[in-house]
Amino acid sequence: MQRSSFLSDDCPPMGIYETLYAFRDSFGKFMGSPGTHPWSQGFPLTTQLTGGPELPGSVAVTWEDRFYPKAWGHPLLRDAIAAHYNNFYGSRITPENVMVFAGGRPGIYAVLAFLKKHVEVRIGNVEWPAYLDILTQTGCSWRVVPFTRENGFHPANATYFDRSGLNAKTHLMPVISNPGNPTGHTRAGAELEELIAMAEQPKNGILLDEAYEMFHATKGVSGIRYVKDLDNSNVFLAGACTKGLQSPGIRIGWIIASKKNVETLSNFSSFGMGGVSHPSQLYAAQLLEPKRVAQARDALTRHYGMQRERYGKAFAAMGLKVHTGDGGFYHWLELPAGLNADELNRRLFKHGAAILKGFDCDMARPHQKDPSYRSPYESFFRFSFGPLLPATFESDIAILRQVLDEYRAAVAR
Ligand SMILES: Cc1ncc(COP(=O)(O)O)c(C=O)c1O
Q1: Which fold has domain 15-49+301-412?
Q2: Which residues have C-beta atoms less than 6 Å from ligand 1?
Q3: What is this structure's pTM?
Q4: For a substitution probing ligand 1, which of 131, 242, 254, 382 has the most ligand atoms within 8 Å of its CB?
Q5: Sequence ranges of the domains in the chain
Q6: 3-class DSSP assignment, residue 204
Q7: What is the pLDDT along the chain (413 residues), one digit of tens a residue?
């Protein structure tokens, strides 16, 4: 007889994996392998962009790099990250405001795992699928902020801090991806300034996930520009080498926070993480070389701005509603009435393509499958142009148009 597992029965993989396994079963290959169209995937091009900087090819490892790393991060990398923000955004953070993690997710996970019980998370109804798993597994309490056609999938800042019905002891912590995954909506300029001012009010904080910091026409958008007193705040900014620095495989991310909050996170590292790989941190420090980053910001803005615009136009022309904002590398799309993203995906699989269903981005859905739950986003999907080379544009559009036309005709019959 099979013994019952000691580990949680409530630990499914992030929503997208189900799609990836279904894709493999249908198409016979893993998504991302040659001959597939990775529109469901959230990674950037990892090759040099036109006009962009070269990506370092190696990293020197000495006997010192075989020591245990410092719990809070390599001094060289912490310096480089602090300078990265201070030089571009005019902030004055110090290396003691930087905590290094093995990628963006572990940093976000750690912040949420150590939230006090009286802190309530506020999260948009449409957000990055992993947040739902992280909030569930860390035992956070959260409330969902409406994302609708009426508010343009971009609710006002104040909605995240609405205290109606709360008692005095509850503190609020919005978790926002900015630019947003999957919507591309971005809070910048005065709107971002207002968001940060609200987050610095007593009883408030924020976890602003800036994984897509460089994917915006302004070449960079970060709340740090507007933070007045980081060390006396519960502002947490998440960053990573994953997207703009084109290096998801090196697994380097970080949290910018008050010195006190960084100390707590580094205490966690001392018993729960053991620091982060030195070779990876040294590679990240090379990536952050200021001239390289300046060149990368230009090239990313040009390449991804061009892709956002032309895919958006082509999607609108084939009858999809485009609800995308002006940042990131995703389109947030709505199918014509009567069609749903689940069936669209099954049809795309046969052509070696897949999208991310809006359902997976629904933060109000139950964590475990519940067939009785109806998501308001079943006719929505995310199209990623992150990993797509310019040369695949025509064929991507031709495949999607053909599948959509066939699906429409089948429904009309
Ligand atoms: C919103 C968001 N935050 C953070 C990350 C960073 O993830 P990681 O660095 O762990 O790959 C991603 C990557 O998909 C993301 O989409």
Answers
A1: Aspartate Aminotransferase, domain 1 (3.90.1150)
A2: 42, 103-105, 128, 177, 181, 209, 211, 240, 242, 248, 253
A3: 0.97
A4: 242
A5: 15-49+301-412, 63-292
A6: strand
A7: 889 999 998 898 887 888 889 899 999 999 989 999 999 999 999 999 999 999 999 999 999 999 999 999 999 999 999 999 999 999 999 999 999 999 999 999 999 999 999 999 999 999 999 999 999 999 999 999 999 999 999 999 999 999 999 999 999 999 999 999 999 999 999 999 999 999 999 999 999 999 999 999 999 999 999 999 999 999 999 999 999 999 999 999 999 999 999 999 999 999 999 999 999 999 999 999 999 999 999 999 999 999 999 999 999 999 999 999 999 999 999 999 999 999 999 999 999 999 999 999 999 999 988 999 999 999 999 999 999 999 999 999 999 999 999 999 999 98
Q: Which residue has the tokens 């245990």?
A: 68
Pick the residue whose CA is nearest to atom 13 on ligand 1.
42
3.40.640.10, 3.40.50.620, 3.40.30.10, 1.10.150.120: CATH of 63-292:
3.40.640.10
Q: Residues for the chain: how many in total?
A: 413
SS3 61: coil
Distance 130 CA to ligand 1 centre (A): 8
Supply the residue whose CA is at minimum distance from atom 7 of ligand 1: 104
Question: Closest Cα to residue 44, out of 385, 294, 306?
Answer: 385
Give the position, in ligand 1's atom list, of the atom nearest the Cα of 209: 3
**3-state SS track over 224-293:** HHHCCCHHHCCEEEEEECCCCCCCHHHCCEEEECCHHHHHHHHHHHHHHCCCCCHHHHHHHHHHCCHHHH
